[in-house]
Amino acid sequence: MRRRRVLLVAGGIFVMNLSAVFGSVPRFDNFDGDSLSPMWKVFLDDPRNILIEQTHSRLEVTSTDLSDEVDALVVSNAWSICTSDDFKIKADLYHSAVTNNWSEVYFGVGYRDDPLHYNENYIEIALGCDFHEPGYWYERGAGDVELDTDWIPRYSSDATLYISYDASLDKLYLSSTGYGPQNAWKTVTGVIKGDWNRATVKIGLGGYSEGVPLASGQARLDNFVIDEATLCEVFLPADVNEDCKVDLADFAMIAESWLACNLDPQSACPQ
Ligand SMILES: [Ca+2]
Ligand SMILES: [Ca+2]
Predict the structure, then answer these.
(1) CA–CA separation, 61 vs 59, rounded Å?
(2) Which residues contact 8 (CB under 8 A, 6 or more apart)?
(3) Of 9, 145, 177, 258, which is most buried by a Cβ count within 10 Å?
(4) Who's near 159: CB < 8 A, 6+ residues apart?
(5) pTM
(6) Residue 124 near residue 157 (C-beta atoms within 8 A)
(7) pLDDT of 222-245, one tens digit each?
């Protein structure tokens, strides 16, 4: 129905001491200051035609009519959410561009296998519009492939979007009314710890446009809150499986590859 590509999430290769930047990871961001918190990293597909900026005490996505299937988003910088425990996160989103082409603002979780390539895995809930019909949009994807999508009409420009996770059931609940299964519009089962096999996930907040000129205030995000979560502040260099702990599981993965050598040519490897 809507061909799109979303660039959600950074890889886990960024080893920096985030706690040195601002103590522990904040549990909320109201985007009110003069500049974006270091808890976020910005990704822009095409800075000439789509931007995400902290201004007017919120995050605003703006774009031109030359934006062509492009994203602008902020992603959790170095920190991530542990999937060993339940989590509850929410954010306020607003989208009022009613046009024939698709544009949206979104909130989601995901990760990227290979930070050098468009190889993202993500689950998002969005406020968007195309064919002059505003709607809520759900999407689960891997790279350029949409694996699962859904859409329902929307009658308000703003909404609080809720993402909650039941770690024991590996169920992710997406909603515009509240946390948990009782509020879920979409329930995604067996993906985060199942298909993805992830001990942590990153958070993404952003916008997307297919040639829709988004003016200041038409597409915006605000008031990100972590109501419940165990956070990983930063991956340690020896944390091979990225579960925020360095233990025997990491050692076992290292031992599996011990003395392996992938140099090309192979003659460069120790003989
Ligand atoms: Ca704000
Ligand atoms: Ca580990």
Answers:
(1) 7
(2) 73, 75, 108, 109, 110, 112, 120, 122, 124, 202, 204, 206
(3) 9
(4) 92, 93, 94, 127, 136, 176
(5) 0.88
(6) no
(7) 999 999 999 999 989 999 988 999
Q: Which ligand is nearest to the CA of 31?
A: 1
Question: Could you report the per-residue pLDDT of 43-83, keeping only the tens digit for each?
Answer: 999 999 999 999 999 999 999 999 999 999 999 998 999 99
Helix (H, G, I), strand (E, B) or coil at 190: coil
| Nearest alpha carbon to residue 222 among 132, 117, 105, 133 | 105
The Cα 203–Cα 99 span in angstroms is 28
Q: Of the bound ligands, which one is closest to the alpha carbon of residue 82?
A: 2
CA of 248 to the centre of ligand 2 (A): 8
**Quick check: 108 and 192 in contact, CB under 8 A?**
no
Q: Which domains does the chain possess?
A: 18-235 (2.60.120.200), 238-271 (no CATH)
Q: How far is the CA of 17 from the centre of ligand 2 (A)?
A: 17
Report the DSSP pairing between strands 40-44 and 50-55: unpaired
Produce one character per residue of 176-206: b if its CB has 16 or more CB atoms within 10 Å, e if not.
beebeeeebbbebeebbbeebebbbbbbbbb
